[in-house]
Design goal:
single chain; 181 residues; mainly alpha; elongated
Length: 181
């Protein structure tokens, strides 16, 4: 297993171990640990990437297009998180049946976002700065790698822990059932 795969597996294992098991508490954890963190960190990464691309425009290894890609990720993730926060998570808290279609859409979004993160990894040579990279460039790669790890753990919690609870026909035990909003 590669170093990157080992780190990702460890991050996801830790994410599940640190997450509460009760559905409402798990949703709260996702909102505070991941949604708030992504909203805080991604705009900063976009700005840092713009600065690195501008300052080092003539450098052969500059990650051309990384700032645009991160900006695109920011916009798409924001829309996705709003759908979860305003529609899906409230329905889950109420134990609503019939969430397979919205969950399928969220999984599709997750696949698209995962592909975008792989593109960022390719643009940055696996988040490895060149030998002569300045402090800002090194910080950009370190922080983008951290974001990618956090996002992978976020997706894992949703796809493999939270969503399966609602892909069945019955509501999770101990939770109420109701119609979709």
């Amino acid at each position: 297993m590669s170093d990157t795969a080992t780190i990702a597996t460890t991050t996801m294992t830790r994410a599940v171990a640190d997450a509460p098991q009760e559905t409402g508490a798990l949703i709260d954890h996702i909102l505070t640990r991941y949604h708030e963190t992504h909203r805080r960190e991604l705009p900063e990464l976009v700005q840092l990437a713009r600065r690195v691309e501008a300052v080092h425009a003539d450098h052969a290894a500059v990650p051309r297009g990384l700032s645009d890609l991160l900006h695109q990720i920011l916009g798409e993730i924001e829309v996705h998180m709003k759908k979860e926060e305003l529609i899906l998570f409230p329905a889950m808290r109420r134990g609503v049946n019939g969430l397979a279609v919205p969950i399928t859409q969220m999984r599709h979004d997750h696949d698209d976002q995962d592909a975008q993160l792989h593109a960022a990894e390719q643009l940055t040579d696996g988040f490895k700065p060149p030998q002569d990279a300045c402090g800002s460039w090194r910080a950009l790669y370190e922080r983008t790698a951290k974001f990618a790890d956090d996002f992978a753990a976020h997706l894992h919690l949703e796809n493999d822990v939270l969503f399966p609870r609602f892909e069945q026909t019955a509501a999770p035990q101990g939770e109420t059932k109701g119609p979709l909003p």
